Amino acid sequence: MPRGVDVLVNNAELVTVGPAIGESVHGFRSVIDVNLHGSYWAAQACGRVMQPGSSIVNISSILGITNTGMPQAAYSASKAAIAGVTRDLAQQWGSRKGIRVNAIAPGFFTDAISWKYPEATSNNWKDACSSDEPANQKSWRVRWCGLHPRRAVTSPDRR
């Protein structure tokens, strides 16, 4: 007899980049709807049928913890909220239902979404990650590198 759902990986992502002063209500809500609401409702649906020992992994972002100077208010807000929801669900379901709820917060990497932003994916990463620019003058790209333990930006196909 099937047990239901054993693992949920909540990897919802919609990204906008631009100054907050120019962001539309629709654009902001769209990001929150996909990234936060989608993850929450999927977790709720799975939490109803999961058995003890099941696991939910929510994908947050380093931008939910800090910023790099790249203007992404809606995305950052949604990923910070994912961290909060994760803490709450872990507390609610961990001891009572035996469901593990965790989040990971990856940093920047080049993928199909990031390629939409040429300034984020040019071949200048190597130079940016070894930059000696003064801290108050560092570009967002240099600040990203500082957030990575290996001081490198990677891609999904790189091992």
UniProtKB/TrEMBL annotation:
* Any GO molecular function: oxidoreductase activity, acting on the CH-OH group of donors, NAD or NADP as acceptor
| InterPro entries xrefs | NAD(P)-bd_dom_sf, Sc_DH/Rdtase_CS, SDR_fam
Please give the superkingdom of this protein's source.
Bacteria
Report the family membership. Belongs to the short-chain dehydrogenases/reductases (SDR) family.
- PANTHER family in the record, alphabetically? SHORT-CHAIN DEHYDROGENASES/REDUCTASES FAMILY MEMBER
What name does the UniProt record give this protein? Oxidoreductase
Q: Which species does the entry assign this protein to?
A: Rhodococcus wratislaviensis NBRC 100605
